[in-house]
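seq as requested:
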Amino acid sequence: MTTSVRRADVEGKWAFYLRVADNIGGVLKALVQYGSLALIIYWLTGAVESLAGKYTFADIGIKFLAQMSISQSISYAAGAGGVLYGIRERKLRRDKTEYLARRNRELEERLDPRRSSSRLTGRGTTRKEDRE
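struct tokens:
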């Protein structure tokens, strides 16, 4: 009987310590999140205050955007978003091509170690020698 009482006491203490540690972790996580947000806002207000009353490229950009209609702004934003999406997808496709080419080469060399290379680039792009 005494061992079961001791075990329950020990387990209860550990459960309490784990709950305290979990609560402290939650508080620290919130402090980091909201502290970071407050720090970013502080830095942004400092940047805006330093530019107040000065003629900058930001002012030119704001005047340019103010002269455009909403439909023009949306079309430019959609076009820029499409270009950025295309660039990112091209990089992802090339990365995946490189991974699959390396894997394919390893598997083919297992089957035939004397296999010759096609001399294609690993990323699926044209070799420098072939561009001319």
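Residues 1-55 form one domain.
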